[in-house]
Amino acid sequence: MTILLLVLVLALNFGISWANASYVGRYWSESKEVGGSFRVYIVVGYIMAIAGFTMVYGYIGLLVSPFILQLAKVDQETIIMFEQLSLDLVYIFCVVTIVPTGFYIWIQSLKDFWEQRTLSSGLTAGWNSYAQIHNTVSAARNAPSALGRISKALFGGKGKKKGNTVIVLCAIFLLILAIFGGYFTASAIMKKADREYDMFANIQRKNPEYF
Fold first, then answer.
1. Integer-rounded Cα radius of gyration of the chain
2. pLDDT in tens, 2-45
3. At what angle do helices 119-155 and 164-196 cross, to 10 degrees?
4. Residue 175, Cα to own-chain centre: how many angstroms?
5. What tens digit of pLDDT does each residue of 132-176 get?
6. Cβ distance 97 to 47 under 8 Å?
7. What is the rounded CA–CA span in Å between residue 15 and residue 20?
8. Domain segments of the chain: what residues?
9. In the Cβ-directed half-sphere of 50, how many Cα atoms lie within 13 Å?
10. pLDDT of res. 53
11. How far apart are CA 42 and CA 194, in angstroms?
């Protein structure tokens, strides 16, 4: 049941990240011309899409890796250490990307709601407020202990074993794979949307009197 719930959460996160990458792709080229806060908003959305896909791929790696390690005759204690370190690394990467960029998107959504006063902008601002508060509180609670475990694994102490170096390298490798997967997935979706959508042409079509 726990695995099924995790899969559903990852599927939802994948869908949200896909939507983010597609949205920023629709305005990517145009945002370079417009610049300013609009460009920052699009870049921030792109970063969040990368982080979202990275989290999905990282957790998929965490689900699959125990089976691979068991086939390689790795002992259970080593597998647990690898899983914990990999989990902490993926979590910290997502925290340092999603929380800061989330603040920008949250503030921008509040600004849009104040200016537009529409139901859609209100729902967006409400959801972003909930998501940002949840993510910030979660980071405040869990990030310090995760950083502590990462520091102990990387720098160790008197009880550190030489074999732990292999665990650390494998966990870092998993994180790198997840980041590259997130980057290339978000970039592919973004570029496809950028090719298929022309913001200026769409505005001209809807408001021909201004052109």
1. 21
2. 778 888 888 999 999 999 999 999 889 888 888 888 899 899 99
3. 150
4. 12
5. 898 899 899 999 999 999 988 887 655 555 557 788 888 999 999
6. yes
7. 9
8. 20-197
9. 19
10. 96
11. 12
Token match 């990467």: residue?
93
Q: Which amino acid is at 158?
A: K
**What DSSP line would sit under the chain, residue for residue?**
-HHHHHHHHHHHHHHHHHHHHHHHHHTHHHHHHH-HHHHHHHHHHHHHHHHHHHHHHHHHHHHHHHHHHHHTT--HHHHHHHHHHHHHHHHHHHHHHHHHHHHHHHHHHHHHHHHH--HHHHHHHHHHHHHHHHHHHHHHHHHHHHHHHHHHHHH--TT--TTHHHHHHHHHHHHHHHHHHHHHHHHHHHHHHHHH--HHHHHHHH-GGG-
- pLDDT, tens only, 83-109: 999 999 999 999 999 899 988 888 988
